Request: fold
Amino acid sequence: MRIESLSKRERLFRAIKGEKVDRPPCICPGGMMNMIVEDIMDITGVKWPEAHVDAEMMAKLTMGVCENGGFENFGVPFCMTVEAESMGATVGLGTKINEPRVIEYPISSVTEWRNLKELSVEEGRTKVVLDAIKILKNQNLDVPIIANLVGPVSTASSLMEPVDYYKELRRKPKEAHEFMEFVTENLICFAKAEIQAGADILAISDPSGTGEILGPKLFSEFAVPYLNKIVNSVKEDIKGGTIIHICGRLKSVYGILNSLDSDVISFDSIVNVREVAMNVDNKAIMGNVSTLALERSSKDIIKNLSRVCIKNGVDILSPACGIGPRTKLENIQSMVEVAKESIYME
Reply:
C-alpha cells in the first residue's frame, strides 16, 4: 500500500528525522551547495552578482528554482563568503557565472584573531540573507527554507591564507583553538539569526574541514567539536533539523562521523553511498549526484545516477556539491522526476 502523499516541507522534515516518507525529497540547500543556474536567472530576470546584495532578488531566485520544477526547497545565500566578509575579509562578488570569493584576507596568522571584526547581523550581506529568509517565510508556502552556514574550518581558512592556517593548527594549537572559538561564536550568532528570521533547517558546509585535508587527528580536534558546538546551540530552536556537508573522501574518518551531532550527513560524489550507510548509523544520508555530471551529461544519465543513489541508500536525494551555473535546468528537473517516481510502500 502506498504511503500517503506529503507536502515538500513535511517530507523533508520526516526524512531528516528518519521517519516514514512517501518518497525521497530532492533538495539542494544553497550556500556552498549552490542551486542557482543561468536558466533560472533568465526565467526570473534576476541575475548574479546583483542578487548577492539584494534580499528581494535573492528570494526571487531561490523561489524560481522550486517554481520551475527544480529542487524542492528554498535555500540562501548562494556562496561561501558572507560570514568571512562580515568578519573583515574583502570579497569580490563575481559575475553571472562565477560565485563570490575572498580576494584579501584580514589576518595572516591565528595569533591575530583579535584583529577580526565581530560578525554583525544588522548590516551588509548578513542582513541581506536574513531579510531574504523573512521574505521567503512571509510567502507562507509549504516549502522548506534552508539557511546556510559556512563551517568553522572553512570560515577560518577564508580569514587567512589556508596553507598557513593548516600549518598553524599543528604549530600553534593554543592560539588556533582561540581563533576557532571566536569564529564559532560568530557563526552561532548568524545561525541563530537565520532561524529567528524563519529558517526551518540549518545546513553547515565545511569543505575545508575534511578528514582528507586535516587527517583524522586534526579533524577530531578542530572540526568536530566546533561543528557540534554550532549544531547543539540551535537544536532547541530549529524545527526541521541540521545538515552537515563534508567534502572529500571519508574513509579515514568513518569512525568519527557518528560523533557529529547533526541529523543529516551530506558528502561528495567520490564517496560510496553504501559505505556511508554501513558506517554511519545515527543520521539520515543525503547525496550525492555528481555536479560534474549534472553540468555536462544528458538527462538520461542524470536519471540513472539519481536512481543509483536512491537504490544505494540515500534518504534525501541531492547534488554532491554546489552545481555550476551553466548546468541546464532540465538536468535538475530530471533529479526531481526520479525522486517523484520512487514511491515507497507500507
